[in-house]
Amino acid sequence: MNFRIRSKFIGILAIASLLPLGIALIAFRWFGERYSRQSEGIRYQEAAAHLSHSLTHSLRSEIELFNQWRILSGIALAVSATDIEQTPRSEAARVAAIEATEALWPTLTPDSPQLQALLHNDLSQQMQAFITEHRNFAEVFITDREGRLIAATQKTSDYWQADEVWWQAAVLLDEDTVNLDGLNYDESAQVYSIDITLPLYQSNQTGREIVGVIKAVLDASPVFQSFSTVDP
Question: Is 109 exposed, middle or buried (0-12, 13-18, 19+ CB in 10 A)?
Answer without folding.
Answer: exposed
